[in-house]
């Protein structure tokens, strides 16, 4: 009755699939931000320490477990202990939440990609207002790139309560994104295995092109110097270490069940130890590589804005005091300012609020992460380059590849347990199961294309996966080390690979990683409890900037539901199995 | 005689200075940024350029009101600065002591802005009439939004790919069913239970029958060589 399990065409497909899944948008838009906030070059120290303590061991654990048990996440934990089937279900639930909102990012990438074929780029200039006498009001208060993001792409409302209508352009982009994902996962490993060759390697090509372009941009060196000067005093800040640990944890995509799913399609004697080390090293070096590119772009943008600011100040002073053109330059600006203060004190005092103190440091300090970095900062830098259409197309194709690569992992995490279950696989072919999963996700994802959709996206992004994953991975580690038994696991690895794991792996699995995860968990809980009410950033169209608002009660309820839906699976699963066993025992004893 | 002339001259000058001064009624400030616009080809601003400016304003007034009454002498310039900025008024030709209403001057300049700009090789940004807003040219909108075209192409490709895979999958499935129906009970392969050991199906292990299992390979070293 059982078909032989589909396998990867060759081990390289497996490695590429894992790299494609692990190297995602977080490497591009989260790591550079953390680097900047927590000590520049010095951040690499806690980053590598955390990689060694938790990154590699936990990755090896998941790959080994998946490869040995040859099942998706639900089956694997059922084999280890029937009481742990809830862990697998929790992984599937978290993956489901993730795939719901993650594909919206791909929809945005498609949107920007399609708009890159215009000259000039649509986010390069502000649109005109209705009587063509000036620029649109909202756009004039902020920049054209921010206007394009908040108004044209998201059509964002001013708070989470105002739903608005579905933005049809975003909706069709989302449908296209899901069709692309469906096309890639349609045939299971047969199609996924070929797609990951492209999704894993193309981003590196684009990053390399951007590295060369970025380093040759005017002012790029400023950004790089700023990034790499280590601020070692940040090492004393506990947040640095916590963020390093969190970044390693989430960057590798542990706990979703995707790695278990990918490894389950391996040959049983695949050397997953070697691949675990390779994949985690590649993931970390990609983060560093991407942050070099990002910081040269930052440097370019900051220098450009700084020089713009200076020209504006010079123009203002020249016009007000009717000085000769070219009398004020960037070099003599300070001395001329002093001269003007002394000669025309009254007029200068009136002018003072309008004169901004242009500072390169201040421009470099504006640290941005997330969608803001990817879609606003980068597009602003791109519009100032020559041949901007080409760079724009390349960049958004790269974002698409990164996003689709991660989506393949997420959907594999959901579909592998579903296709493993005998009930579903006998009644429906896997193409239909994939289609149904994609369809449900697409319909739910339409919520994120409404006017308030981006606020709901932020809720999912911040809360759907964070706490739950920590708990899941903690339970996984403890289950393998203590419930299944470290010795039994060692023997399994001996059977698979031909050698036992050395003391480093054992110590990390049994002690270091669980302790680290527990401390991360405690930190996050206390942080949530301490800050009391949760807040979000809302876009205020009248001011042209973000303002902080409190979440309404139903949004808080949704957040609680998200966290509870996945974490509660673990104890509830154990409880249900316990009750079922009790009932069985009772029915057996009554028969006797 | 000389005294009368002097008196008339001083009177005119006083009237002129009253009519044309900064923030006077119906006066406009003009600002030129010649070096910014032309760089090395910048010309110097001198009396001839001022004359040309007066001529252009007079031209604009004539065009606007369609009566050839405005003279160059009706345009008064004052407060010239190094910036190259100055104020100007247009006096009424009929009555020399009053100025043409600002709204008329504004409309006239707006109508002929292009001509005035080109006379000085400048643009709306570099030849600024403060208080007179210029009409910005709207960006060129293509008839069909470009993004929809690209979107349509990509969508068609993806849907074609999906249909291809689905159809070929269905065909393969039908072929397999057809084949297994033909062979029927002879092979009975669909009913054979797959033997497993430790969760690993034996047929998978058999595929790599030639592989050396590391556990046993290590044992070879313990055999003492003869």
TrEMBL record, chain A:
Major localization listed first in the record, in broad terms: membrane
Pfam families: SNF (PF00209)
Keyword Transmembrane included in the entry's annotation: yes
Gene Ontology molecular function: any one: metal ion binding
Sequence positions that bind Na(+): 22-23, 27, 251, 283, 402, 406
InterPro entries: Na/ntran_symport, Neutral_aa_SLC6, SNS_sf
Gene Ontology BP term (one): glycine transport
Membrane topology classification: Multi-pass membrane protein
Keywords from the named record: Glycoprotein, Membrane, Metal-binding, Sodium, Symport, Transmembrane, Transmembrane helix, Transport
Transmembrane residue ranges: 12-31, 43-61, 82-102, 166-185, 197-221, 241-263, 275-298, 393-415, 436-457, 463-486, 507-526, 554-579
Source superkingdom: Eukaryota
GO cellular component: apical plasma membrane
Location within or outside the cell: Membrane
Family affiliation: Belongs to the sodium:neurotransmitter symporter (SNF) (TC 2.A.22) family.
Protein name: Transporter
Source organism of this protein record: Gopherus agassizii (Agassiz's desert tortoise)
Classification lineage: Eukaryota, Metazoa, Chordata, Craniata, Vertebrata
UniProtKB/TrEMBL annotation, chain B:
Membrane topology type: Single-pass type I membrane protein
Keyword Glycoprotein annotated: yes
Keyword annotations of the record: Cell membrane, Glycoprotein, Membrane, Phosphoprotein, Signal, Transmembrane, Transmembrane helix
InterPro entries with a match to the protein in the record: Collectrin, Collectrin_dom
One BP annotation, GO: positive regulation of amino acid transport
Signal sequence, start to end: 1-17
CC per GO annotation: extracellular exosome; plasma membrane
Pfam families found in the cross-reference section: Collectrin (PF16959)
Subcellular location: Cell membrane
Transmembrane stretches, start-end: 144-167
Residues annotated as domain Collectrin-like: 24-226
Protein name: Collectrin-like domain-containing protein
Organism: Gopherus agassizii (Agassiz's desert tortoise)
